Amino acid sequence: MHLDHPETYPRRHTHGAAPGADPRRPDGSRRALRVGLGGPVGSGKTATVAALCRALREELAIAVVTNDIYTREDAEFLLRNAVLPAERITAVETGACPHTAIRDDISANLEAVEDLEESVGPLDLVLVESGGDNLTATFSKGLVDAQVFVIDVAGGDDIPRKGGPGVTTADLLVVNKTDLAPYVGSDLERMARDAEEQRGDLPVAFTSLVAPDGVRPIADWVRERLTAWTAASA
């Protein structure tokens, strides 16, 4: 189901059945790197997407797919802040638990990504933002090529220790809102130790998006992934 004013609001996709993903587009050209961003409600996923767009839009061709259950709130936030041209932002209405559309039945998200590549491509990077979910949220490998999981210090410094697939298996774990740690009693060193114990060699980035260039660790990680993706699919 599409919205009535595509020039003002993002297009909206409803949920359907999941096909598989392909590393190349039907014409044989390389498709964009797809990076999924998941995490609990309020952890800063949309703010992270916005900051990444601002940091990378001058060097990369980027598009964004947001997921909400019944609203377009996250996409509208990105549009209001003009992080990308409106035609590069689209919204998926999941109609169910957010993890359903990113892990179990990914067709609406795949359709949204493919529509973006068709209409505004070629693209270097597509960011797929999940709706707010719990620590079990993971993306299907048929939808994204890499996953970022965002938590924040206000949720408690025991989150890395509690683990869950989002924390333990994401390609990058982001511990966001570090500037709030002194005010909420979160121990960043403890979080770092617990995250390392849970994740081994998988990277962790501690960020404060209110700080100048606070998104740099995530942006640098995306650049590295894109370099590897381009080389592997050459």
Key phrases:
alpha/beta; eight-stranded parallel β-sheet; 18% strand; disordered N terminus
Number of helices: 9
Radius of gyration: 17 Å
Distance between the termini: 36 Å
- Share of β-strand residues: 15-25%
| Biggest sheet features | 8 strands, parallel
Major sheet: arrangement of strands:
1-4-3-5-2-6-7-8
Helix content: 25-40%
Report on this model:
- The chain is globular and about 50 Å long.
- Mean pLDDT is about 85; it is low at about 1-20.
- The chain has about 230 residues and is α/β, with parallel strands linked by helices.
- The chain has helices at about 45-55, 75-80, 100-105, 105-120, 160, 165-170, 180-185, 190-200, 215-230, and strands spanning about 10-15, 35-40, 60-70, 90-95, 125-130, 145-150, 170-175, 205.
- About 45% of the residues are buried.
- An 8-stranded parallel sheet has the order 1-4-3-5-2-6-7-8, with helices on both faces.
- Helix content is about 35%, strand content about 20%.
- The chain is built from 9 helices and 8 strands.
In brief, what are we looking at here?
This protein is α/β, with parallel strands linked by helices. The chain is built from 9 helices and 8 strands.
